[in-house]
């Protein structure tokens, strides 16, 4: 179906189907006939059958629509943008963040604060990193801009705080070192696309 | 002092026991009915229903009771306080008064090993009036004074609308319920429900529903209107008139209205079972009391089933269908039954 069909606002020009409705009866005899027809059609019993079928399905086939929330949770999409996660390198276990500061720069609600310094190997290390979740609007720019896939959005959506400014520190969001094996890569916000290899182009050195 | 009484003589003790049984069972059923109703409606809407309080949510009744008892008993400033207070009692009271002439379980004698009550013959009916059905219909009709007075006394426009609809409903169904029962009464030749029961004693073939299917359908419809059940849930339809005649009620006064409503539901279910479906006669190997429970349970379930399935009608639709369709049908039914009875005699 092409988009033009939806853009056509000329009502009455398209192929509308006219419902096969009987005209409203004008005479008393016509109304009587319609009443008798409707009364003997037994459509009410069809309605009863529908609800009874649903009851059987709810009771014996477990087709209840209810999720008993505190005890049951539905899985949410991996692309859901909830509380951030800081990822580690799978090989060394070192955190991936290189302290480039792009997430701090791009954050449109100014909720990311970071301080970095050079360690003894002349490598950037993160000394302070915090996200103010009172300000964060979970737009996902930080995860999208991160060149190292170090900051991503996780699925922790049950958050509440006693204060408007609730900060989360780097260590809180970092994958625990003993859970490194269960750290997952996913095609979520900020992750590489599935066809990333195909998109790699040679650096155009020709010019 | 041991009085010697005939084994099947109805004594005041037996009548009292019967009355207490009816009162206790039906008060409990009114509470239990709310639980069943919420469960059945939930299942029909793909929900589990009350399930947190107690096993399977059974203690939800107790939780509701505690809530009703501890709620503020509120009377509006400009309400007529006397009538406002009396109205719920009328509904609940007449609902139980109507039960006097309704047989619920078969006759039985309390076993001798039970202390104090042993050997007492408990009749099927608390009082076998010779005008049984008339009395029941009259008492249940008087019960509509509850909503009528409640709505008018509370100084609230929704209450007034509820009262007006009560009057509309009353004028609609009362003719149908009376005329539809007239045909079975002509066949049985008595107004006592015990005679109705004995008329259908010889198995499923003698059930009156086969001889009077039209009267059964008409009385079923009128019974739904009489108990304010969907599709004739006009008096307090939330989508239109907030809560109708119970808008200003809270706490136990509000609860009394619903005890009355659920008792009326049970009464209608018992009437349908006794008048049209063989009463408390034994059915094959099934004892009469079990048959009665099954039949009353089915008609109670039917009310909830209908509520889950069908939309409700407008007051004017109820009135036109009652006067233009149901009443002529009832009259035709009475005339045909009369001709047949004359021809057979």
Brief account:
The complex is a heterodimer of chains A (207) and B (345). Chain A has helices at residues 4-7, 28-40, 43-60, 102-106, 141-145, 170-173, 196-199; strands spanning 84-86, 112-118, 124-132, 151-153, 167-169.
Spell out the blueprint of helices and strands:
The complex is a heterodimer of chains A (207) and B (345).
Chain A: H1 4-7, H2 28-40, H3 43-60, E1 84-86, H4 102-106, E2 112-118, E3 124-132, H5 141-145, E4 151-153, E5 167-169, H6 170-173, H7 196-199
Antiparallel strand pairs in A: 1-4, 2-3, 3-5
Chain B: H1 12-44, H2 60-70, H3 81-98, E1 108-109, E2 121-122, H4 132-142, H5 145-153, H6 157-188, H7 193-199, H8 208-211, H9 213-226, H10 238-241, H11 251-276, H12 288-309, H13 315-344
Helix pairs in contact in B: 1-11, 1-12, 2-11, 3-4, 3-5, 3-11, 5-6, 6-9, 6-13, 9-11, 11-12
Plain-language structure description:
The complex is a heterodimer of chains A (207) and B (345). Chain A is an alpha+beta fold. In chain A, 26% of the residues lie in helices and 12% in strands. Chain B has a domain at 75-97 and 129-344. Chain B has a two-stranded antiparallel ribbon. In chain B, 43% of the residues are buried. Chain A binds chain B through residues 35, 39, 44, 47-48, 50-52, 54-55, 57-59, 63-66, 68, and chain B through 40, 43-48, 51, 305-306, 308-310, 325.
Descriptive key words:
heterodimer, A: 207 residues, alpha+beta, Alpha-Beta Plaits, three-stranded antiparallel β-sheet, two-stranded antiparallel sheet, B: 345 residues, mainly alpha, two-stranded antiparallel ribbon, 13 helices, 64% helix
